[in-house]
Fold:
Amino acid sequence: MLSVEAALREILDRSAPLPAESIPLSVSALGRVLAEEVSADLDMPPLDRSVMDGYAVRRADCQEVGVSLLVVEEITAGRIPTKPIGAGQASRIMTGAPIPEGADAVVVVEKTRADGTDRVEILDTPKPEQHILRRGKEMRVGDILLSPGCVLRPQEIGILATAGKTNVRLIQLPRVAILATGDELIEASETPGPGQIRNSNAPMLEAQALRSGGLPRRLGIGRDDMDSLLSLIEEGLETSHVLILSGGVSAGTRDLVPQALAAAGVTAHFHKIRFKPGKPLLFGTADRAGERRLVFGLPGNPISSFVCFEVFLRPALRRLAGHADLDLPEVSATLAREANFQNDRPTYHPARLRKSPTGWDVEPIEWVGSSDLRAFLKADALLRLPPGEVRYPAGHRVDVLRLDG
Structure:
């Protein structure tokens, strides 16, 4: 069986960023990866402008506090000055408005006194360039603003608009097909009969895929029948970059997923890993329409599916979407209570993180097994435990993977 590290290498070695696409600039670009270089198409600001409300003046006229200046005009943002500032003159100016010719400082309105006439008393001795932002101080035409690989945050979207980018080239988001399997499954809208359970894995995996940057779509429920499985597997391979199956990958007589995948032309690169919860994880690839498809067979137990997704599928989806930061964020935390475990393989145990004055505290979650999804409601982290007997006292430092990152 492969180690966690070896399994991840197998997956990521066969994953590569998808091609770019051009989309209109909108909030839908948030969190996506830029696929082009973006340069400034103009100087910013395009003119010398004021950064405060006040009066544009000549410093030579304001060497003494209390000097009275003639106000020649008022300049608002978006209006071009019509009169230069001469000796003994000033212009009333608003934030963002262009600086008139002849002015070399702005005195804020709070440091002036106007008496309702066309004159203003200056109660300040301004410094050179005071409250003036010169043309091109923020950016010059041709400056590189953003580079390929940049993840778009709100400020990057603002810069794209500043640069006049009404359309932007981004790495495609991976399309993800999700197929839950098993004769025992029914939809959430139905009432279970004897031996039946509601399909919780598909909506859970759909949400995880969306959170990881994918475009998920459910294929329905695949029954424990080769014809049913093959038809839905083929649909997933034809329409999506990634196919995720839940259930049917163990060694039972009705676990037909490995056989069905092989019949659909999927090459399995591994089937079992040294990992808990989720030993029977399957990973394979197939070619469709000249493109590589990634295929994952996850265990049917909800917690096994959840944890396998976060540890193995999340990095793959993020690589397809062009991200460089693939893994769950890791923090060092202090055990809030003693932890005693006996594991036959490396284990990713659900845990709860709490911020403390000294950093992070973590507490393992009590659960009754990998089907106990309710207990997992309390979890916001995974505590990594080595195989064998583990006895950690309270206060021991451990590595923890955050699930809210």
